[in-house]
Write a structure and sequence with these properties.
The protein is α+β, with helices and mostly antiparallel strands. The protein has one domain. It is built from 4 helices and 4 strands, in the order H-H-H-E-E-H-E-E. It has a 4-stranded antiparallel sheet with strand order 1-2-4-3. The longest helix is centred in the N-terminal third of the chain and has 32 residues.
């Protein structure tokens, strides 16, 4: 079968494989980011509970300027990320991208709109 004649099932399978690879890369990058930030602090960074992410695990994914615009809260199965201020379209897009890479989503709920990331890894 040539590249142009792939079935829909084959394409979906390849997309799933790519998504799995991207998730692994995203986790690796999050770990590296956490280690780099921890290297600049004299005390060791807190270790996440096995299989469960904390607010600190999500917080370290953001550059300092974006992190300061957000609040982070563990809420049952999710880490909820809310803006402290109006984000503007550029900052919103950057934050949404980081949240998506972490497996999260944006919840549109008027004044209660927020991002959420599953705590379970």
């Amino acid at each position: 079968m040539t590249e142009r004649n792939l079935s829909v099932e084959d394409l979906l399978e390849r997309i799933d494989e790519l998504l799995n690879v991207l998730k692994l890369v995203s986790r690796d990058l999050a770990d590296i980011t956490k280690e780099l930030k921890a290297a600049g602090v004299p005390e060791a960074a807190p270790k996440p509970t096995e299989g469960m992410r904390t607010t600190d695990d999500i917080r370290v994914l953001f550059p300092k300027d974006l992190e300061e615009m957000l609040t982070f809260e563990e809420n049952g199965e999710y880490v909820v990320v809310k803006p402290r201020q109006f984000l503007g379209s550029e900052n919103f897009a950057k934050i949404a991208s980081i949240i998506r890479e972490a497996g999260g989503e944006y919840i549109s709920a008027g004044k209660e709109s927020h991002f959420r990331v599953p705590r379970e890894m």
